[in-house]
Design goal:
The chain has helices at about 45-55, 70-80, 125-130, 135, 150-160, 190-200, 205-220, 255-270, 275-290, 300-310; strands at about 10-15, 15-25, 40-45, 60-70, 85-95, 100-105, 110-115, 140-145, 165-170, 185-190, 225, 235, 240-245. It has a nine-stranded mixed β-sheet, sandwiched between helices. It is of the alpha/beta class. About 50% of the residues are buried. It contains ten helices and 13 strands.
């Protein structure tokens, strides 16, 4: 990813969760208890994952987050400070604990089952956002997800849109009220499940993904990018649809793949890359991320460039 002289800042508004990950050989059936091979407590949360991914590529990355006044919150502050963000705006809740995610990771299925307690993430106040209004207005890109209270998300994305920022909405985890935010989003980045819920069209292949993307654009989004897991991703604009096949990779952990894609996309757009190049880069970055253990364990630029150079793209 080449940066131009006019590269801008990225403001990530989002969540932090302590991920409690149990690795099992296969998912349990209903009512069944299985023994985990191991359990780890890792840094997570869609906002933190995306911010860390973006920071790997963009030194001018700013991250707003809210945690509890507890041990997980103190650990979050330590971890996030070590990522050397241009700006870290960490707030504390005295009424709710730091968010947690209970994750079962299946070695057989190469997939995850996740239950989230968002905790302090859902206590962001208007005054806390007002305190970083100047940072938002000066950013080139504003990136947010749905792991915070929706009124706060709405305030941030509207402020970004009104300030002329490129706004990216990752509608995950899905919430019906996400439809109300589409008019403020330059780019919407659902996965298959979220795209199906947003559009009412079940995404099962490239054709249905294209139909779903058009339906989401009809609802107000300007650009729709649907991430398709092992099938890569799909870019849909007023100019048409492009499918980007997935880069080959040796999958270790898919838990941070979507987040890595969004963080890399934001960094690329802040560096003034055309949307087509930004999507291709993010696609390769996400492939590299699945080869690492842990949702926030992001690849380096050198690793991604090696992945990009490893094959000749055949974009359909």
């Amino acid at each position: 990813m080449k940066k131009s002289k006019s590269s801008g800042a990225v403001f990530v508004f989002g969540s932090y969760n302590a991920d409690i990950v149990s690795y099992v050989r296969m998912f349990p059936k209903h009512g069944q208890t299985v023994t985990a091979d191991s359990t780890k407590i890792l840094s997570g949360g869609k906002g933190a994952n995306q911010a860390i991914a973006c920071r790997r590529l963009c030194s001018d990355t700013h991250f707003f987050v809210k945690v509890g006044n507890d041990e997980f919150g103190s650990k979050a502050e330590e971890i996030l400070k070590n990522n050397d963000f241009a700006g870290l705006y960490l707030n504390r809740s005295h009424s709710r604990k730091t968010g947690t995610a209970s994750i079962i990771s299946s070695l057989k299925d190469r997939d995850n089952m996740i239950a989230i307690d968002l905790g302090a993430n859902c206590t962001v106040t208007p005054e806390e956002i007002d305190a970083v209004e100047g940072v938002i207005r000066q950013s080139a890109v504003v990136l947010t997800q749905l792991e915070n209270n929706l009124d706060a998300i709405s305030q941030v994305i509207q402020l970004g849109s009104e300030s002329g920022c490129k706004t990216i909405l990752n509608p995950a985890p899905y919430h019906p009220k996400a439809k109300q935010l589409l008019c403020w989003a330059n780019i919407v980045t659902p996965n298959e499940t979220e795209a199906s819920s947003l559009s009412g069209i079940e995404v099962v292949d490239i054709e249905s993904a294209t139909s779903a993307a058009q339906a989401i654009r009809d609802m107000g989004a300007k650009v729709v990018i649907i991430t398709l897991g092992s099938n890569g991703c799909l870019l849909h604009t007023h100019e048409g649809t492009t499918h980007y096949p997935a880069y080959p990779c040796h999958v270790t952990d898919t838990s941070g793949a979507g987040d890595s894609f969004n963080g890399a996309l934001a960094a690329s757009l802040a560096a003034n890359q055309p949307i087509e190049e930004a999507v291709n880069f993010a696609n390769a970055f996400a492939a590299c991320a699945t080869e690492k253990l842990g949702a926030s364990n992001m690849p380096t630029l050198d690793e991604v460039n090696t992945k990009l150079a490893s094959m000749t793209r055949n974009i359909k």
